[in-house]
């Protein structure tokens, strides 16, 4: 479904739902190898806040680091 706007529609729906619940921020984590997802989140106003390494667990999970991203609800 890449390139058809499904990810954008889901992010928009999540933000609307968060706003109805009175939430002030959205948080997500993205593995650093998933550059397309990170670019989508950045286009939707998410900012990288921290990076975590999983160290020796890389062979189990298949990635080395993850980035926490935050967006204020209602921001563009």
From TrEMBL:
GO terms for molecular function: acyltransferase activity, transferring groups other than amino-acyl groups. The keyword Magnesium does not apply. Residues 1-74 form the N-acetyltransferase domain. It holds the Pfam family Acetyltransf_1. It comes from the Bacteria. Keywords: Acyltransferase, Transferase. SUPFAM superfamilies: Acyl-CoA N-acyltransferases (Nat). This is N-acetyltransferase domain-containing protein.
